[in-house]
Structures are given as structure tokens and as C-alpha cells.
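Hi P.,

Sorry for the delay on this. The queue was packed all week, but I finally got your sequence through. Input first:
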Amino acid sequence: MGIREDHNRFRDIVRGRIRQNFKKYISHGEMIGKREKDFVKIPIPSIDTPRFKYGPKQMGGVGQGQGQPGDGVDSDGEGAGKAGNSSGEHLLEVDITFEELADILGEELQLPRINPKGNRAVDSLVTKYTGRAPVGPESLRHFKASYKEALKRHISSGTYQAENPIIVPIRRDFRYRTFRRTTKPHANAVVIYMMDVSGSMGDEQKEIVRLESFWINTWLKRNYKGLDTRFIIHDAAAKEVDEKTFFSTSESGGTLISSAYKLCKKIIEQDYPLSDWNIYPFHFSDGDNWSGEDTRLCIKMLQEFFLPNVNMFGYGQVESKYGSGQFLKDLEKGLPDEQKLTLSKIESRDKIMQSIKEFLGKGR
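Then the structure:
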């Protein structure tokens, strides 16, 4: 029990360190790209456990040796090297699950849990194996961990023989897998990201979208058992692409936002029955559109198809010195009281955290 308590205490310390630096992680993306299956590697300042340090024997102690009170302390020789102005702190990479990451995100932004719609919104119990313990049922005995404990005991007691390496575990060597049961929503959801890739959307604008979409996905995965992700890019025409292409493509020319909305509608109608799926379209742009007529067509599609059928529709306007920002103003004017339409102005990386709260803070 002591080991498990120490491990839980360590995890609490790690969570505290992550929370202290969470805004930095969101805006600079240290952990994105370090995903391994269900874990994310996060760099945090190293955590040292306080301990006593003993010096060599027969070297005297405090107040011992020659000299009188008030004498100065002499130093033999001079130090080498130049003074520095940077911290000597080292970084430690810790593994954290998406669920823990999403919980920290929810706590920091005070996000409400989502109430999924549709007949798939049924909770199910999920068993997660979380560690090792010296007691447990025989069916959960971890043979590799038990063998390691036995090997350590033989080596420490001096009975290990390299030429005859027979290791016999005894009762105190046995290790068992520990688990916890959590309730996980059974509903399915799809997130459809649309992005303007015309020439006015530069690398910095795309990076803001990349960071924000990562954190949106992290939160939605916490609320849904199954999460599909689709990507659409557009300038004057729209096409579906993979994730890598979505964040690296740059085009030039005009912008017809309705082309992306039409393709998004087609994907939903073909692949995601409205009664079974929770649907989250997100559109990112710098706010330029080819014409007022196309903007009116977009508003009509939002009114007639998207808003009656999706959980929410998010429009994020990324600040660009080349973009007019007119599309957000037109949406505010044309759809002033639509609860499912969430508008967010993302002026810089520092506004990503606020934008995520605007998108996900309603719990839809």
C-alpha cells in the first residue's frame, strides 16, 4: 500500500506541475507529436525527492577542526568557468494518458461534461490496468514482474549464479496487475475540420489551428468512446484531405467558403446518420470571402441544415494582416441568437485557451 500511495502522491505532483504550465503547453505545443498510442509524453521540470546526503567518514563535522569563532573561510584555488544566467533545472518527460490530459484541460477551463445526443448515449464500464501490487488474484499475476522481483532478490542476497541461473520466485516476489473501473460514454462523434488555405492563411495561422484542434480532440475523446476526425481544405474550391495535408497546404487565389460547407454537408449525409452520431463541424478562416452572395448562401446552409442537426457549429477567425475579418461580422449579424453557433476570434496563440473555452464551454 505504501508504494501505491507514493505513486499516487507522485502523480498528484506531476498533475500540479502540468497545471502550472498548462497555458504554455496549449500555446506552444510541446506535447503535440509526442503521442504514443494512448499516452502523451510531456516535458516538465524534474522532480527530486528531498533526502539526506552523507559525506565521507572521518572528515569532521559542523564546528570541528582548527580555527576560532569569527575567522574567515578560506578557499583553495579558483573556480573554473563563467557565471551563467540560466536555470540549472533539467526536464523530465512523463507519460500521461489522454484521459488525464483531458481532465486537466476541463479543470483549467471549467468545462462542463458533454451530454451526447442520440440513442448511442449509453455509459459503459471500462477496466483500465494501472500498475502492479504485491497482492491480488492469481488470474492477474504478472509473471514478468514477478520474475524480476525474484531475480533482484537472488542478486541482492548473493545466491545468483551466472553459470547456473535458476530463479525460483517465492510468495513475496509475486506481483499482480492492479486495475480501476471507470464509466465511459458509449456515444460516437465526428469532428469535421474545415480550413481556408488561401494565400492569406500563413504558417502561424495554420499552427494556431493545429494547436486548437489538438485540444478540441483531446476533450471530445474524453466524452465519447468513438471519435472520427475528417479534414477539409478550401480556397475557391474544397476537397477532403488527410491530417498532414490539412496543416501543410498553402494555396492562392479567391475564397468561396460555401464550397467547404457543401462538402461537409455531403460527408455528413453519406457517412454519419444524424440519429446515431454527435456531429461537430469547425471552420477556421481569416474572414475573407469572395462575395456577399456566397456569405448569404453559407448563412442559409447553417440555418437549414447544420444548426438543426449538429451538436454545435464552431467558427474560429484567425487574425491575419491580409484578412478583412468580415465573415465573423456577417455571421454575428445574420445569426444573432443561434445557440448552436459558436463564434471565436483567435487573435494570437495566447488566445487559444480562451477560444477553446468559448467552443466547448457550453457542454453541447
